[in-house]
Amino acid sequence: MDLQKLITKPKKGVKSAKAGETLEVVGKSVLRVDGWEKIKGAAKYTDDLEFGPGLLYAALVESPFAHARIKAIDITKAEKLHGVVKVVTGRNFTQKFGLYMNDRYVFATDTVRFIGEQVAAVVATDPKIALRGAGLVKVEYEELPAVMDAVKALEKDSPLVHPDLKSYTHVPWFFPKPGTNIAHWRKIRKGDLAKGFRDADLVMEDTYTVPRYAHCAIEPHSAIGLYDASGRLTMWTSSQSPFTQRHVFAETLKSFGLSHKDVRVISTYIGGGFGGKAGVTMEIIAAALAIAVPGRPVKLLWSRAQEFYNTYQRLGCTAKIKMGVSKAGKITALDFKLHWDSGAYVEYGANVVNAAGLSASGPYKVDNLSIDSMCTYTNLPPCGAYRGFGYSEFLFGLESHITRMAQELGIDPVEFRRKNAIKEGDTLPYGAHMNPTGIRDAIDRVAKEIKWGVKEKSKDPKKAIGKAQVCFWKSPAMPPNASSSAFLKFNEDGSINILVSGMEIGQGLLTVMAQIASEVLSVPVSKIRVETPDTDRNPYEWQTVGSHVTWGCGNAVKRAALEARERILDLVQRVHCLDKSTLYLEDQHVKCRTKPDFALRFSDFVINGIQADDHTFKGGPIMGSGVFMPEFASAISDPETGQGGHPNVHYTTGSAGIILEVDRETGKMKIKKVALAVDCGKAINPDLVRGQIVGGLLQGFATVLYEDMRYNEKGRLLNPNFSDYKIPTVMDMPDVVVPIIIEVAQPDGPFGARGVGEHTMIPCAPLIANAVEDALGVRIKSMPVTKEKVALAVKAQKKH
Amino acid sequence: MPITAEFEYVKPKDMDEALHVFSFYREKARALAGGTDLVVHLKENLARPEVVVDLKALEELAVFEMKGDTLRLGALVTFSDLIASPVVKNKFPLLWEASLTVASVGVRNRATVAGNICSAVPSADSAPALAVYEAEVIVRGIKGERRIPIGGWFTGPKKTALLPEEIVTAVELKVPSRKNAGCYMKLSRYDGEDLAQGGVAVLAFSDNTYRVAVCALGPKPSRCPGTEAALNGSKLGEKVLARAKEAILQEVFPISDIRSSKEYRLHMTQIMLERALEIAVSRLFGKGPKYGTENIV
After folding, report:
1. What CATH topology corresponds to A52-144+234-242+267-301?
2. How far apart are the CA of B185 and the nearest CA of chain A, in angstroms?
3. Cβ <8 Å between B191 and A729
4. What is the ipTM of this complex?
5. Is B8-54 CATH 3.30.43.10?
6. Ordered DSSP codes for A665-700
7. pLDDT tens digits for A464-478?
8. Which residue, among A82, A666, A705, would best test binding to B if mutated, counting the most B CBs under 10 Å from its CB?
């Protein structure tokens, strides 16, 4: 009877047995749980941690050559400097390391491969002494011919960056070519390319170039290592990847008797990552120095210049595209060759190349497809993860090219995209099938927002207005067995601590994990604490990269919450003899549909159990654990065609549009309006998703309009500073940014969510290039699209 | 990032002491006022002085006053002091406008006008404005005081007429006797803090005479007499503008560097001259954009 009532007249907030049907917390813009702490300046970052007067500081001896043999290292003068504790070279650390390809050294031993590479370190009682000591280390080099260009590196007589490539170990889905500079070559062959070009009414070929970029997180990398008398190595790092770091430290330093259980990585809040703090870069040096100076903590803090030249950089890319399109506006063939300048070590960067190679068709159905994504060694600094993971780079060429071809055929570029946009179930470049997607909805809503098709005129006769709209997609790039896990523990008062190792990198992970648990367990977010990880106490997470933690870690947290819920319901069923199927959680109580008066407060039993009629206690501390691994994924496929595996777990799609005002004479651009719609499956916290959209767009526009890493012919970075590497300020913001959330649920995501973090920056480059052309009729095919390039192109056009 | 080099630091209590230090140490002494260049150079080991002489205790260097028609900017006057001054804004609006484009608020709070012209980088934003107001640089050494017209101050990139035993005590500007209005156009990579890739200052007078000066378009900031000659005596019109735009190309010597190409700098020199002239002239008649707006191109 009561049950019927409940079904016909549901009370507000009553949940059905299946979580997710009505949502109380998920989908609400609850305030960030780490907000106050950060606003008040109380949040601790790695450099804030105190280690007392015993703390030692390290400074590096760095290579002045892009490619040279090390003939001798003389450390005697440095060792004699008062305050120097130890001078460390690579002699004791010979184990190579790498995330996907073991090609990287702790210190260069025989050969240096880029300017700024670490050759030795001086550990001293004071940072000044360490730097002075580093200046006293004498290294004798024999300069070798170097290669700085990814296309030139393929020439027969090019210097080889890694002559021993054949002996390097790597993941099974990489295909290096020993004896060349090719570290990995991802091939995709699908359909019949020749037939596709025969069927085309228009074939267009061109080359688009993208330079290297730097992440420019506010906080530079820092790491403190302590190797103590118990034989354990503790590392405090500013990192997106504490567990991956632990693994790399343990593997690289295992000759010192370390096993994984002995290595502990503690990650504080980080002041920006954007991929730059994924994997392991300078942290391995701090770990090695800790081993070299046992018993005392050693700190390594990167300067801003080092932040530029000796962490991962974003890969440079030369993209050669040939596309065939029918008169009806269907893409009949796409031949895409991506040459990546991956730098001196590609242990992480090669997977960027792989990811781009798998997905360079963009969010379109392309039946006849050939992709060659080639990872090339050069004597420039190593490259690795950067928000977008290769997608921004190929999308610049692809989305520029699509607009050009559509215009050439007299087809509206937005209609063209709508026609070719991928649908659920379509075959992906590697043969698997597309997940549900709201891309068409995204295209329509953005087109409406920027009044696509309506030509606008500037009030200033010196300026012209252009519009553009493009599409994007991206999938997390991760090993097929990358997994997440979570512990959830109730406390006496019914509050909860959640332990995860997903990193809060500004995206709001802690808040979102609390919301997910809150939704399942009916405990308010304010009673849930989630903190940054310590690998000793927190369970495993592969890395916080690829926009996958809301999905992966979120699934683990949801499973942990569901397990805790099951334990609660089992206990109540056992003690109170109520059928589990009638029980539900509401407002921190266990309630029963068939007994409206029954309400058991969490705080009455979640630690100390429930007292039965015979005065004994049943139950005990309520906990839950959850594990998530995408068990459907596989990276193994035919190396010649890329067909057969299921390397990508899902794609997030979307569209973005812009109204751009351009000064005809100076080339100066002002973004009057930008709108971006992204299908995040389910916005667990809409304000945080909007934050990602706004932030991603601004970072994306920075790479298009201003940023550019510039090297001289010797391989020296000319702008390792903010005087000449320009990231925009508040003065350079667009006038209006419109974030649009599309929600077509991801079936295997927590409450339908899928990734959204990186995607919001990747459409920016073609947006600007296409809008410039719309405004002034000039086409810029190299990034960045600076006002200088625009003005000079307009000037050149006038001459003709 | 720590400063690893070692040096003596002195903070003289009076001018006499300061001048004695400079006469003794000469090139090995460096003056510290705002420190926005010096400290960076010390960190990067670009400056290796034996002694750093902190001038901030010298009260006479802090003078910031208008006497009659002369503005005295003591060597310790910062860009923020200058920007906050209604007198500067009213009497020397072009200098005020140029000062707003110097670095960022944080840097302007410390950086001094005297320091800007002592560093003497080709891109010094204050230099074209000081040039068209025909400022004088007042320097003191143990042997006495010299007054150096701004036109003779810059002798090359990062080089000035200052002798090793001297320090700058002040910069003086006279309010022009005729009605005038100005405009400073700055070529930057974006609207945020940037070093000029080119700067053009124009001061237009009601009697159809003009003064033009540039920065970052040659080895040193400089006046453009040929351009001025092309303009003088004429109302601003299409023909005159075209003449001036041709003339200025003969007076600038930009290079290609990481910040900009020579080609773009030359192109923008003409655009900036044209726009600065148009704005200055319209300001002369009480029209045009307010000072401090629309001058970053």
Report:
1. Aldehyde Oxidoreductase; domain 3 (3.90.1170)
2. 12
3. yes
4. 0.96
5. yes
6. TT--EEEEEEEEEEE-SS-SSHHHHHHHHHHHHHHH
7. 999 999 999 999 999
8. A666
